[in-house]
Amino acid sequence: MTSPYQRQLQEKIDRISAQFAAYNPPALQVFESPEQHYRMRAEFRIWHIENDLFYAMFERSAEGKQKKVIRVDEFPIADQGINSLMPKLLAAIKAVPVLAERLFEVGFLATLSGEMLVSFIYHRKLDLDWEQAARALGEQLDISIIGRSRGQKLVVGNDFVVEKLNVQGREFVYKQVEGSFTQPNAQVCQHMLDWACSVAGRSDKDLLELYCGNGNFSLPLSLRFSKVLATELAKSSVHAAEWNIEQNQIDNIQVARLSAEEFTQAYHGEREFRRLQEARIDLKTYDFDTVFVDPPRAGIDDDTLKLLQGFERIIYISCNPDTLHDNLTTLSQTHRITQFALFDQFPYTHHIESGVLLEKI
């Protein structure tokens, strides 16, 4: 009998196949998610009632106005480590009043390698008593803790976890900073990285990567090219990417703190950026034949699309098939889809993560 997950996945397959049929793509490759314990992040409100408290989420009414409080004792879509920790953490919080007082929200960030970071958000100022109690809790449960309230951030342990992902026979380590974007479904993320490396093949030329984040794709793709220039605007992501490059002992990646729009201006010689000079990046030393893009949901701006049209190959990972479809209106003028994939990062939701390899006509 077909499971609810398989039925919903088939709906996604049917939708994206129909949506992109006009571009005549090859057969769709489908990368499924585990049906349970796939999500490496989870956030819960802490609901206080009389002398008790519990994890809570909210369900909107049919009219979309009122919210119903749903008690959460277990969360099957979350990583098994999160589920194992949830009751232990709640019991420990209840036993220590300074940890429970005006606690508003708890967030979990886990890794496949077993590390755990827990963030606590409060509606009160945190003091030394809280910090001492949090330190004892961290030692008891072997976790790092971040306490937040208005204008405060107290870190007990680390404000990041280190994930380990296996891609085509090699292990890569990634610093994942609390509050920064990371792929929530680590097992599907490994499929995405494998797919990107497979379609990239091997080149004696260079790769341009736009929107590199913490270097999630940059690290494994660097083994496929002579050099990689990766761009990212967010400082925290740039710092994480640089840490990841160093920890993985990769020496052919440079990271430029530029937006995609800024890189386009620099590449065409329309603007000079001190950030490039300070990082000792000389665009003239690169010989690109491939560009990798993983843009935000809004897709790619018109000027950057025109830039992409000049590359022999485009590897495009998309978290929004609608904007990918729109962007292909431009890119299909110069390129054709030669690889097409669906990655089910977000089971039981309507969200679709997809990938295309575009090669020049």
Automatic annotation (TrEMBL):
BP term (GO), one: tRNA methylation
CDD domains linked: AdoMet_MTases
Annotated keywords: Methyltransferase, S-adenosyl-L-methionine, Transferase, tRNA processing
One Gene Ontology MF term: tRNA binding
Residues the entry annotates as binding S-adenosyl-L-methionine: Q183, Y211, N216, E232, D294
Residues annotated as the enzyme's active site: C319, E353
Enzyme Commission number, as recorded: 2.1.1.35
Domain of life of the organism encoding this protein: Bacteria
GO cellular component, one term: cytosol
Catalysis: reaction(s): uridine(341) in tmRNA + S-adenosyl-L-methionine = 5-methyluridine(341) in tmRNA + S-adenosyl-L-homocysteine + H(+); uridine(54) in tRNA + S-adenosyl-L-methionine = 5-methyluridine(54) in tRNA + S-adenosyl-L-homocysteine + H(+)
UniProt cross-references to NCBIfam families, sorted A to Z: trmA_only (TIGR02143)
The family this protein is said to belong to: Belongs to the class I-like SAM-binding methyltransferase superfamily. RNA M5U methyltransferase family. TrmA subfamily.
Function: Dual-specificity methyltransferase that catalyzes the formation of 5-methyluridine at position 54 (m5U54) in all tRNAs, and that of position 341 (m5U341) in tmRNA (transfer-mRNA).
Name of the protein in question: tRNA/tmRNA (uracil-C(5))-methyltransferase
Lineage: Bacteria, Pseudomonadati, Pseudomonadota, Gammaproteobacteria, Moraxellales
